[in-house]
Design goal:
Chain B: It comes from Homo sapiens (Human). The complex is a heterodimer. By secondary structure, chain A is an all-beta fold. In chain A, about 0% of the residues lie in helices and about 50% in strands. Chain B contains no helices and nine strands. Classes of the chains: A mainly beta, B mainly beta.
């Protein structure tokens, strides 16, 4: 069974750094793109970026380029989303999700498997 | 403002059919057959319902169907059930540097 298990909720202060994780299991972690999706309170889904763990090829939405860093450690089947300096506006639920199809060529065939979400709260 | 436009809300009675639209441009919806639809219940992660415009993943009810005409994609739910009440999001590949964009979401109410 494919599973994506995300790290727990975080409460941080503005200016602090943070790295949240997404551990994949039940499939070949290096063969599928994993993306990150933001959902601000009461709002819709936003595509942040995506990584291919096999070779760490990473793409970002321009809205998030330079604001976050997406990475992966294939030795422990885990993808990461990190911030160097959080803002109150980063308060949101963050989901990782795996593309339906495999392969290093980016083929946007939908996110079929999702993590449970990590709630990040940034408040002074 | 979302790149893809969806109605904020739709409603229908049990047993009826409803359609949710998702309007983009020739750079996204109209240019590629890479439209997906997601269902999200409150407090839950989204669930993929349709991919590649009209394909259903294994396990998704055949009451859900997708189509596209020009720059507008549509999700149709037939035989509405109470459990279908949720938020629905479309997404599409885009030739812009964004790569993929979501619609603003549609809240479906089953009356």
């Amino acid at each position: 069974e494919v599973q994506l298990v995300q790290s727990g909720a975080e409460v941080k202060k503005p200016g602090e750094s943070l790295k949240i994780s997404c551990k994949g299991s039940g499939y070949s972690f290096t063969s599928y793109w994993i993306g990150w999706v933001r959902q601000m309170p009461g709002k819709g889904l936003e595509w942040m970026g995506i990584i291919y763990p096999g070779d760490s090829d990473t793409r970002y939405s321009p809205s998030f380029q330079g604001q976050v860093t997406i990475s992966a450690d294939k030795s422990i089947s885990t993808a990461y989303l990190q911030w160097s300096s959080l803002k109150a506006s980063d308060t949101a639920m963050y989901y990782c999700a795996r593309l339906r199809g495999s392969g290093s060529y980016y083929n946007p065939v939908g996110f079929q498997h999702w993590g449970q979400g990590t709630l990040v709260t940034v408040s002074s | 403002q979302s790149a893809l436009t969806q109605p904020a809300s739709v409603s229908g009675s049990p047993g009826q059919s409803i359609t949710i639209s998702c309007t983009g441009t020739s750079s996204d919806v109209g240019g590629y057959n890479y439209v997906s639809w997601y269902q999200q219940h409150p407090g839950k992660a989204p669930k993929l319902m349709i991919y590649d415009v009209s394909n259903r993943p294994s396990g998704v009810s055949n009451r859900f169907s997708g189509s596209k005409s020009g720059n507008t994609a549509s999700l149709t739910i037939s035989g509405l059930q109470a459990e279908d009440e949720a938020d629905y999001y479309c997404s599409s590949y885009t030739s812009s540097s964004t790569l993929e964009v979501f619609g603003g979401g549609t809240k479906l109410t089953v009356l």
